[in-house]
Amino acid sequence: METREIELFSKPGAKLQIQTHAGLPSQDGSLPTLVVFLNGLMSPQSTWNPAVDILLSRLTSHPSILTYDRYSQGDSDPDPYDPPDTVYGHDALAVIADLHELITQVCATILHLPPPGPNLRMVFVANSIGCPLSRLYAAAQPGSVSGFIFLDSMMANTDFVSLFPNPDAPGFDPDSLPEDISVDDIRHTRQEYHRMFRPSVPNQEHLDRRNLRELLPDAEKPRLPRGPDGQSPLLTVVGHDWEVFATQSLEGQMAIPKPVTHAYVNSAWHRYNQGLCRLTSKEEGPREPIIAAGCGHFIQKDDPELVAREIINMLHKLNRRLS
Fold first, then answer.
1. How many CB atoms lie within 10 A of CB 43?
2. Closest CA to 322 of 26, 15, 18, 23
3. 278/101 Cα distance (integer angstroms)
4. Cα gap 209→59, rounded to integer Å
5. The model scores a pTM over 0.85
6. What percent of the chain is predicted at pLDDT more than 90?
7. Whole-angstrom Cα distance, residue 122 to residue 51?
8. Nearest 5 degrees, angle CA 102-CA 106-CA 108?
9. First and final CA of the chain: distance in angstroms?
10. pLDDT in tens, 111-137
11. Domains of the chain
């Protein structure tokens, strides 16, 4: 992988840190392939390096690869269009517009590939908020994405606090809670999720998440558009290990009791992932998410071997479409 800085033509003076790998020419007449990795809010592009290293060591015919830090993430500069007088900056639609410009520019000037569209086979590998970003990109650029790997997608359609009952709401019945969960547990958890995860909480990246629920209100729709070959894209959905995530939530700064995480977060997240599995046809993806044993939310950090394996599996499936 080659590391370099690049300036988008539309945002001169603001550098994005990227890593690229130029793939080998196809020997079978298939479209050239570009694998694009999309980070979460708290996971810069460097978190993909172990999985990319494994991927390149296992394949004899390499795809082209792009990883990058979004504006104000990792080693990239701030977005020059962000207003200076607010904690909120660009939203998800601005991110995908930048992403399309970046991919187009990298393909033309560095990787020497066709632009996104009918002559390029593109696969998105995404973690956390990178997953809804990839969905929005595909909707904005139909016919450009051949495959998606969602690694513990962010639940884009919730404010997170609403995952839990409100003990201060009129008519709340304490006896409705599971036996191993107290009212104090619920109140503490709601406060922590309100402090850390609600969409209006600012982040270092200045990515404004407040309209994400309106942009993607449903896990299972809209369907992912067809790819460059005119076929439904391939889809792999991977979720975290429930017990690992519950342990991390307990031992982290939020100190969420494990029974609360299991009852209200893990269960809701699994249903969301099941909805994501319905974004494409049954023939192009399983109906149930894969559970990444031993992994918390950042699956690419906890099990890069799994990530590389799923990418290789998807590339092989795409190649079989040619036969």
1. 21
2. 26
3. 29
4. 37
5. yes
6. 88
7. 18
8. 120
9. 31
10. 999 999 999 999 999 999 999 999 999
11. 2-158+205-320 (3.40.50.1820)
**What are the angstrom distances between the C-alpha of 75 and each of 168, 240, 317?**
43, 27, 35
pLDDT level of residue 321 (50, 70, 90 thresholds):
confident
Over residues 194-198, mean pLDDT: 93
CA distance 7 to 95: 15
pLDDT band at 289 (very low <50, low <70, confident <90, very high): very high
Whether the CB-CB separation of 292 and 303 falls below 8 Å is answered with yes
* CA–CA distance, 215 with 163 (Å, rounded to integer): 19
Based on the number of CB atoms within 10 Å of its own CB, is 273 exposed (0-12), middle (13-18) or buried (19 or more)?
buried
The whole-number pLDDT of residue 61 equals 84
Give 296's contacts (C-beta < 8 A, 6+ positions apart). Answer: 240, 241, 244, 245, 248, 302
Q: Running DSSP on this structure, what letter comes out for residue 86?
A: S
